[in-house]
Design goal:
Blueprint: E1 5-11, H1 19-27, E2 35-39, H2 48-56, E3 62-65, H3 68-71, H4 75-89, E4 92-95, H5 111-146, H6 158-170, H7 176-183, H8 187-199
Parallel strand pairs: 1-2, 1-3, 3-4
Helix pairs in contact: 4-5
C-alpha cells in the first residue's frame, strides 16, 4: 500500500520562479500542503525544506521531483541521498521528467541495482559535458596563444555559452552568478554574451 505523496522544489535563488516545478507536482497529484520549496544552490543538501521533507518520509511514502537536478547538482551526493531515501528509509522517488527514475517500478529486489546504474550513467554524462566544455576552452586558448594573441580571461565560444544560457534561463538549473563562476567571466561579459546570443 502506498504511503503519503510529497513534492520537492528547488530553485537556485530567490529571484527564480518555482511555478513550473509546482505545476508539474500538482498535476502529479501532490497536495499543495505537502510540497516543499528551497530557494538555494544545489551544491549540497544542507537545505532546510529538503531536510524537513526527508525527516517526514517514512516507508512506502513517495517523493516527487520534476527533474534530477532539482534534487542537487553534485551527483556523488545525489547517489548518497538516493540510497538513504530508497534503501534506508524505504520510500520511493519519482523524477517526473525521467520515466526511468521511478523506483516504484522496481520492486523485485533489483531496485537498488537499477537506480545505481541509471545514476552512474547520469553522473558520467554530466562529467563528460564538463570535460567537453573545458577542453574547448583549453583548445581555444592554446590556438590563440600560438597566433600571438593575449586573451586574459578565456573567450567563451557561443556554443559553450548556449549550454549555460539553457541551464540558467530554460532549465533553471543554476543562477546567472553560478554560470559566470563556472565560465570564469565577469558580469559585464556574461550579459554582453547573453545579448549576442539572443540577437543571433
Amino acid at each position: 500500500m502506498s504511503g503519503r505523496k510529497y513534492g520537492y522544489i528547488r530553485v537556485s535563488s530567490k529571484e527564480q520562479n518555482p511555478a513550473r516545478q509546482k505545476d508539474a507536482l500538482l498535476k502529479a497529484g501532490i497536495e499543495e500542503g505537502y510540497i516543499f520549496t528551497d530557494k538555494m544552490s544545489g551544491k549540497d543538501f544542507e537545505r532546510p525544506e529538503y531536510q524537513l521533507v526527508k525527516r517526514l518520509l517514512k516507508k512506502d511514502d513517495i517523493l516527487f521531483i520534476k527533474d534530477l537536478d532539482r534534487l542537487g547538482r553534485n551527483y556523488r551526493k545525489i547517489k548518497e541521498e538516493w540510497k538513504e531515501i530508497t534503501i534506508d528509509i524505504g520510500a520511493d522517488i519519482v523524477v517526473l521528467d525521467m520515466d526511468l527514475l521511478d523506483t516504484r517500478k522496481f520492486k523485485n529486489g533489483m531496485e537498488e541495482l537499477i537506480s545505481n546504474i541509471i545514476l552512474e550513467l547520469l553522473s558520467y554524462m554530466a562529467e563528460k559535458e564538463r570535460e567537453k566544455i573545458n577542453k574547448r576552452q583549453a583548445e581555444g586558448i592554446k590556438k590563440a596563444r600560438q597566433n600571438g594573441i593575449h586573451l586574459g580571461r578565456p573567450k567563451i565560444e557561443l556554443d559553450d555559452f548556449e549550454y549555460y544560457y539553457d541551464q540558467v534561463y530554460n532549465q533553471e538549473n543554476m543562477t546567472a552568478i553560478e554560470a559566470m563562476e563556472e565560465m570564469d567571466i565577469s558580469k559585464s561579459t556574461f550579459y554582453r554574451r547573453k545579448s549576442e546570443y539572443e540577437n543571433n
